[in-house]
Design a protein that fits this description.
The complex is a heterodimer of chains A (252) and B (774).
Chain A lengths: L2 E10 L6 E11 L4 E5 L6 H8 L7 E6 L2 E2 L5 H11 E4 L11 H12 L4 H14 L15 H13 L5 E5 L7 H16 L3 E5 L3 H4 L4 E6 L2 E7 L7 H18 L2
Parallel strand pairs in A: 3-8, 3-9, 6-7, 7-8
Antiparallel strand pairs in A: 1-2, 1-4, 4-5, 9-10
Chain B lengths: L1 H13 L1 H38 L5 E6 L4 H10 L3 E11 L5 E3 L2 E2 L6 E5 L22 E5 H5 L8 E4 L2 E9 L11 E6 L1 H7 L4 E10 L5 H10 L8 E3 H44 L1 H9 L4 H42 L5 H27 L7 H7 L7 H4 L11 H12 L1 H29 L14 E5 L5 H14 L3 E15 L5 E8 L9 E4 L7 E5 H7 L6 E6 L2 E11 L9 E3 L8 E10 L5 H11 L3 E5 H45 L1 H9 L4 H41 L11 H23 L2 H4 L2 H5 L2
Parallel strand pairs in B: 5-9, 6-8, 14-19, 16-18
Antiparallel strand pairs in B: 1-10, 1-11, 2-5, 2-10, 3-4, 3-7, 6-9, 7-8, 12-20, 12-21, 13-14, 13-17, 13-20, 15-18, 16-19, 17-18
The chains are: A alpha/beta (252), B alpha+beta (774).
The structure holds adenosine-5'-triphosphate and magnesium ion (MG).
Adenosine-5'-triphosphate sits at the interface of chains A and B.
């Protein structure tokens, strides 16, 4: 297990307004798995991802990431852990506007070891090539499309060869063809052995993952084992329909 | 209205520090402006009151020697413009013979004189502005001595053996100013008679005219008539100026600081406003898109700044009333309660109102940027900015040298230069106002500065004045000094009076210091010292008055015949009333005014002994240390400049700290998305804060270096202008390199970095969840 979360509680708000967004949710993610989390808007999907990665502190329960209890770690330890073992992709590209695309990708690696600039740049170029955007390396981020920037974000997240790649609706702001390309890239990354956890409300996206968790009322209301997706389009139709049926059954 | 109010309140709560700092600067600007207005209105009023109450003479001729009273009376009746005239005795008593509670005034370079109260005009006033009536056994002492703490009410004073008691202090409309070298004590006629034989008598020949506009003609007539004129000539306008000078300087300084603070207040506003606009960029776009009119959007923002500026202005006005009595203290003491205080309040309030209006107009102008925000663009992209090509070439991937955080800090400054210009400008100004007054202080406090001021840079000086046969006595002292083995250099200069034929054909008396001027060279603002017999150098005041500059010729009556002299140079002079000249020829037939001997000793340690020795040997000479002479001539100025320098360092540091604090808080707020992004990537708080420190270091370094450079070029020229008011123009800073180039920059840098530290505490509070989670 790369992540074991048991009975996690996370509350927001003060006084009477305070309520548990996560209310005893338990999640396990195996190494090499491609998991997605679904749920109604505002159900706490993002919060779940943020607690599993230590970016939101817990109000109860426990998260073990690669065997380490996140609640025992300091801010600095958590930062170091993110830098070493986690990668993130968000709905918006969240790139630094001062830096060009290549610099954005190598940023965190340069922080750790700038003596290896050449090998760092080489790795970044390999990733950009794999994402099909190598020719954009020298451009400013204003000179690329939303889908391209999202791919840059994925490359940035993969620089440290993370133990888990977290994605919070990485295709949420994209049109369907751009979203498709992102999902194909993620699938390839998964095939290369990276553990991926995606938050999404898009069935098309969830249908491509191995396992779908459904979050409701602060708990995992159920999970759907979809199995490995091989990449054929008729297979995808079938997976979507099965997932849809399950979701209706569980009350989405 | 309700809506505006709650919006203003919310905005205030969200940005307490920045709003407060902005308000503070507006308040400071308002305070200073109002104080300056109070001074500007009060000072002339107070001077007028003083000079009216005291019936200050319109024309005063000081004269040492016999006075022909009948001839003067005849002259006065003949001139129709003369309203009244009088000849007043000024009994000059050596400082060594005057002691307050046992402490003598021996070290004083002031001419301390005793007088009795006049009947008709030139009245000496007490601290209530009433004409003093002195009883026997009482003495009234110049205010300056009270301020220096030398004399207090009820002190016992010993004047040449006569015991007197201090019964009050003298407001003297002629000699109040520290710049005037004589001070008047007031005693009763019978006490005066008792001490009369212990001093030398100098006469003040004083005239009141019907109409001040006749003064010029009267001055010329007096000179033409060949009447008593062995001493300086002083006029009503000069007395006004002397009375105005120290408070006038204060007004100038306050106005200077005010303009700086106003500029900073504007910068703060510009700064917070632009940041706010950027923050609200997409909201503004949305408001536009749903059809809210531009003027309505502007009104919301304007409302906040009007509230902030108005509060600041009111606060400032209130503060100015609190500080009022402080800045008026000097005026109250020397001149009395100024009239027209309502006018001062009105003018002060008007000034503050103008600042307020300017702020509103300015905010309005900045808000015009709203026009360029297009609704669709704002919604789609949020902020949009392209970095300059120079910054684009500065790539992280090419960086092997700098720590990545330092690199990111530097890169940010390069990429967003415009943003940092504000902070840079403030720091340039801060360095400037730290270095200039400090260098100025250093310069005028340095021993060689006296040579800018018309006096020799020697160790000891002996003045032979107000005695008979000055030429012979001076020569005797000089001869004695020549024989003294502990004397390494000596120059003897005799000042004689000559008539100069001016361009309009009239004659004018000038005093020319004759001798070898190469022994203790002065710093000339133009040209050089006279060396040949047909050469002369003029003090700035004389050169201005005669309309001569270097290379011109001047016709002087030497030995009864007109001789054409070439002006070789112009120098500044604060001694002897500032109107002097120097030449190398001699003319034994011309009347001697005084003699000065400058002495340089082989060793400084024997100075005290030598002063005592020669003081005793030649009782008729006034022997003083040149440092002492300098300290007493412009020691007050040195102290004031020292104080001003201290104050400006404090002000500069406070401003740097506040602006940095403000700036950093705003940057952190503005950059919260990139901060959150970097945190998600695994940057620690300390990493990110180091980026901000790097930005600060770069900006502060640039600012301090350029500020210091400016200080030594533009600042030096500016300071030269100030010095020129005293008559000098070939001015150069004497710099203490450690203080000016190491300590001061370090001080600013430390202050800025400390402010950066506190200003970026917000980095810790900027969470990934609040800024990225969707
Ligand atoms: N930092 C926070 N402070 C206060 N409330 C928060 C915070 N983060 C989340 N919430 C609240 O918690 C609830 C869950 O938010 P979360 O973003 O996790 O939902 P979500 O499932 O990701 O929603 P969406 O599908 O819209 O992205 C919401 O009601 C949200 O308002
Ligand atoms: Mg979400």
């Amino acid at each position: 297990m790369i992540i074991t979360a048991t009975g996690i509680v996370k509350a927001f708000g003060a006084g009477d307004e305070r309520r548990n967004v996560l209310d005893g949710a338990s999640v396990e993610i195996r190494e090499g798995e491609f998991v997605s989390v679904m749920g109604p808007s505002g159900s706490g999907k993002s919060t779940l991802m943020f607690t599993l990665s230590g970016m939101d502190r817990l109000d109860g329960g426990q998260v073990l990431f690669d065997g380490r209890d996140l609640s025992t770690l300091s801010e600095n330890d958590l930062a170091d852990l993110r830098r070493a073992d986690m990668g993130f992709v968000f709905q918006q590209p969240t790139l630094l506007s001062n830096l060009n695309i290549l610099d954005n990708v190598i940023l965190a690696s340069m922080h750790d070891n700038r003596r290896d600039v050449d090998s760092i740049k080489q790795r970044a170029m390999t990733l950009l090539e794999r994402a099909g955007i190598a020719e954009l390396a020298d451009r400013d981020i204003t000179q690329a499309s939303g889908g391209q920037l999202q791919r840059v974000g994925i490359c940035r997240a993969l620089m440290n060869d993370p133990k888990v790649l977290f994605g919070d609706e990485p295709t949420g702001a994209l049109n369907s063809s751009a979203a498709d390309e992102i999902m194909r890239l993620l699938a390839e990354i998964h095939r290369n052995g990276t553990t991926i956890m995606l938050v999404t409300h898009d069935i098309k996206v969830a249908a491509r993952t191995q396992r779908v968790l459904f979050l409701l009322d602060g708990k995992i209301a159920g999970e759907f084992e979809a199995g490995e997706y091989r990449g054929a389009s008729e297979e995808l139709k079938d997976r979507e329909e099965r997932l849809m049926a399950w979701l209706t059954e569980i009350g989405f | 209205m309700q809506m505006y109010f709650s919006m203003i309140r919310n905005d205030f709560l969200r940005s307490k520090t920045t709003t407060l700092i902005t308000m503070l600067f507006v308040a400071a600007a308002a305070t200073l402006l109002s104080l300056a207005a109070i001074l500007v209105v009060s000072l002339p009023a107070a001077i007028d009151t003083l000079m009216t109450q005291a019936k200050t003479p319109h024309f005063t001729q000081m004269h040492a020697g016999e006075v022909d009273l009948d001839r003067l009376a005849a002259f006065a009746t003949e001139r129709s413009e003369v309203e009244d005239h009088q000849v007043v005795e000024f009994l000059n008593i050596d400082g060594a013979r005057i002691a307050f509670e046992g402490r003598s005034l021996a070290g004083s370079v002031q001419d301390n004189g005793f007088s009795v109260q006049n009947e008709n005009f030139d009245l000496l006033l007490d601290l209530n502005g009433d004409v003093i009536k002195v009883a026997n056994g009482e003495v009234y002492v110049p205010i300056a001595y009270m301020q220096e703490g030398l004399a207090g009410m009820g002190d016992r004073v010993d004047v040449a053996g006569k015991k007197l008691t201090v019964a009050g202090f003298v407001r003297d409309s002629q000699m109040n100013s520290l710049l005037s070298s004589s001070k008047r004590f007031l005693v009763s006629p019978s006490d005066y008679a008792a001490i009369r034989s212990y001093g030398s008598i100098e006469y003040l020949i004083e005239f009141r005219l019907d109409d001040l506009s006749a003064l010029g003609a009267f001055e010329a007539a007096y000179a033409d008539a060949g009447l008593e004129a062995n001493g300086p000539t002083l006029t009503y306008p000069l007395f006004r100026t002397l009375n105005a000078i120290s408070d006038g300087l204060m007004i100038a300084v306050i106005l200077l600081v005010t303009s700086l603070v106003v500029v900073i207040a504007f910068l703060c506003i510009r700064f917070t406003l632009l940041a706010k606009i950027e923050e609200d960029y997409s909201e503004i776009g949305v408001m536009k898109a749903i059809g809210i009119r531009l003027t309505d959007i502007k009104r919301i923002y304007l409302a906040k700044y009007i509230a902030v500026a108005a509060t600041g202005a009111l606060l400032g006005l209130a503060l100015s009333f609190a500080f009022r009595s402080m800045v008026l203290e000097n005026i109250r003491l020397y001149m009395g309660e100024p009239e027209g205080s309502t006018l001062a309040v009105v003018v002060g309030t008007a000034g503050v109102a103008i600042v307020l209006l300017a702020i509103v107009a300015y905010v309005n102008r900045v808000l015009n940027r709203f026009r360029t925000i297009s609704a669709t663009e704002a919604i789609r992209f949020g902020k949009s900015q392209d970095q300059p090509p120079s910054a684009r070439r500065f790539r992280l991937g090419d960086n092997r040298l700098l720590d990545t955080n330092v690199f990111l800090g530097v890169k940010d400054v390069l990429a967003r230069k415009k943003l940092y210009v504000t902070m840079l400008m403030v720091l340039v100004a801060a360095a400037f106002i730290v270095v200039v007054p400090q260098n100025l202080y250093n310069t005028i406090a340095s021993p060689s500065f006296i040579s800018y001021m018309g006096a020799a840079d020697s160790d000891m000086r002996l003045d032979v004045q107000q005695t008979d046969d000055i030429a012979a006595k001076t020569a005797a002292v000089s001869a004695a000094l020549e024989d003294d083995p502990s004397v390494s250099r000596i120059s003897m200069l005799l000042t004689r009076a000559f008539n100069v034929r001016t361009d309009d054909g009239t004659d004018e008396r000038i005093k020319v210091e004759l001798g070898d001027h190469s022994v203790f060279p002065l710093v000339y603002s133009q040209g050089r010292a006279p060396a040949a017999d047909d050469e002369i150098a003029l003090s700035v005041m004389n050169a201005d008055e005669l309309g001569k500059s270097t290379g011109d010729t001047l016709t002087v009556l030497v030995g009864g015949e007109a001789r054409s002299l070439t002006v070789t140079g112009v120098y500044s002079d604060v001694t002897q009333g500032g109107k002097t000249a120097k030449a190398a020829f001699d003319d034994p037939s011309a009347e001697v005014m005084w003699g000065v001997i400058n002495v340089e000793l082989a060793s400084g340690s024997i100075l005290e002994d030598k002063i005592a020795e020669y003081g005793e040997r030649f009782a008729f000479a006034k022997v003083s240390s040149v440092d002492e002479f300098a300290a007493q001539t412009y020691g007050g100025t040195i102290r004031s400049v020292g104080l001003a320098s201290g104050v400006s360092i404090a002000v500069a540091l406070i401003i740097s700290v506040l602006i940095t604090l403000l700036f950093m808080k705003m940057l952190v707020a503005k950059d919260r998305h990139s901060i959150a992004t970097m945190k998600a990537l695994g940057f620690r708080n300390a990493d990110i804060r180091r980026q901000y420190a790097a930005r600060s270091v770069l900006v502060v370094a640039t600012g301090v270096v350029s500020g210091t450079l400016l200080a030594n070029t533009v600042g030096e020229a500016l300071a030269g202008q100030v010095i020129a008011q005293f008559g000098g123009s070939s001015f150069g800073f004497v710099v203490d390199p450690v203080a000016a180039y190491v300590l001061s920059p370090l001080l600013i840098a430390v202050a800025v970095l400390a402010a950066t530290h506190f200003g970026t505490l917000g980095v810790k509070m900027t969470t990934i969840a609040d800024n990225i989670k969707e």
